[in-house]
Amino acid sequence: MKIDQNIKIAVDVVVFGYDKKGLSVLLIERKYPDGKKKWAIPGGFVENDESLEDAVKRELKEETNLTLNYLKQFHTFGAVDRDSRGRIISVAHLVLINKSKHKAKSGDDAKDVKWLPISILPKLAFDHNEIVEKATDVLRYKIASLTTDCVEDIPTKADIKLLSEELKEQDSKKER
Question: 8-175: CATH homologous superfamily?
Answer without folding.
Answer: Nucleoside Triphosphate Pyrophosphohydrolase (3.90.79.10)
